Amino acid sequence: MLTRHNTLIGDCRKMRSLLDESVQLVVTSPPYPMIAMWDELFASMNPEIDALRETSPEKAFEKMHGLLDEVWLESYRVLSPGGFCCVNIGDATRSLNGRFRLFSNHSRITQKCTEIGFTNLPPVIWRKPTNAPNKFMGSGMLPAGAYITYEHEYVLVLRKGGKREFSNAEQNQARNASAYFWEERNVWFSDLWLLTGARQSLAKAARLRSAAFPLELPYRLIQMYSVYGDRVLDPFMGTGTTTVAAIISGRNSTGYEIDAGIMPRYESKALSEIAELGNKMLEERLSRHRLFIEERISAGKSVKHRNELYGFPVITAQERQARFFKIAEIEWVGKELQVAYDEIEKKYLRASA
Ligand SMILES: C[S@@+](CC[C@H](N)C(=O)[O-])C[C@H]1O[C@@H](n2cnc3c(N)ncnc32)[C@H](O)[C@@H]1O
């Protein structure tokens, strides 16, 4: 198996290198309107925003979203029918013009995407507790002047139209091979995700500057909403977390980033780190599955099915054709990263199942 990855420096409001209906999944996190760290970026795209922020915050909020709207429209254009658009977004709380308030980014994006034609599906609440000593704001123990602490973000789940069709044998094969484990389904498809920490390997300063999400977030979404051979797009790729998740998941990817300083260069050391990390994650995933099955059997529960390729037990018939690939090599070929994979060793898995 081979996957291809393009990382492009440019403004994702016009993704000219992408044809209509050429990607199957969008996973992204835009700059958050009304969060101070993104003020400068929004003002650089529309200078009116700076002046409005203090005097008419609601107007500034609307203008910032006006810029993001163009990206949701482009995402709709490039997605194939039935393709998903998963948007990680946090709301903003801020004191402006002498008043503390909430700017509901997630509802504004949901509303616009629905207008564009996306089908709005149940979102995930990503809970990220803060340990900050000053996390409670307002009048302390005295009633009526304190504010709820905001400790979550959203992953909006939007689909272009109705259910994706898998209409021929090849497409069905790719879908069956991309099955995840029953016990993973039970966690991933819950509406509350407790995830902490961005990628370890990234320097702290770059992480703060980029507001990277943890690798587990795009990794789950890619498993949930795409199949082997698909192309995943991140229009706001930042440090490239979605690209790494796509590489590890055996999907192709495209990333756009406006700031060349943030964008990873993927020199050879970074590439071997990605391969190592991906293979470790896969091993851990398979070990977790083995442990889960062992515990289930010890608890006297039955395990009815076996994976047809590797022989290990699985809970449902849908997992019988799931296939798993290790990264063999990642290399630059021209302007594209190419990743070659080896299927996991069948004997090893049978013996230890
Ligand atoms: C919230 S960060 C994304 C972080 C990313 N998920 C990661 O894990 O590193 C948003 C990114 O979008 C980039 N950006 C903002 N406006 C853009 C635009 N119009 N086109 C392309 N990239 C843009 C910013 O430079 C920033 O790196």
Characteristic key phrases:
two-stranded antiparallel sheet, 10-stranded mixed beta sheet, 11 helices, globular, alpha/beta, 353 residues, 16 strands, binds S-adenosylmethionine, Rossmann fold
Structural write-up:
The longest helix has 31 residues, at 268-298. The protein has helices at 39-45, 48-55, 57-78, 105-116, 169-177, 182-188, 204-210, 216-225, 241-249, 268-298, 346-352; strands spanning 2-9, 23-28, 79-89, 92-96, 99-103, 118-127, 137-138, 146-147, 152-160, 192-194, 231-234, 252-257, 305-306, 313-314, 325-333, 336-343. It starts with a strand and ends with a helix. The radius of gyration is 22 Å and the shape is globular. The protein folds into two domains: 11-184 and 193-203, 3-Layer(aba) Sandwich (Rossmann fold); 276-352, no CATH class. The protein is α/β, with parallel strands linked by helices and 353 residues long. Strand 15 and strand 16 (336-343) form a beta hairpin. Residues 199-203 have low confidence and may be disordered. It has eleven helices and 16 strands. Helix content is 37%, strand content 26%. The strands form four sheets. Strands 10-6-9-3-2-11-12-1-16-15 form a ten-stranded mixed β-sheet. Helix 2 (48-55) crosses helix 3 (57-78), helix 3 packs across helix 4 (105-116) and helix 8 packs across helix 9. The structure holds S-adenosylmethionine (SAM). S-adenosylmethionine is lined by residues 11-13, 29-31, 41, 210-213, 236, 238-239, 241, 256-259, 262.
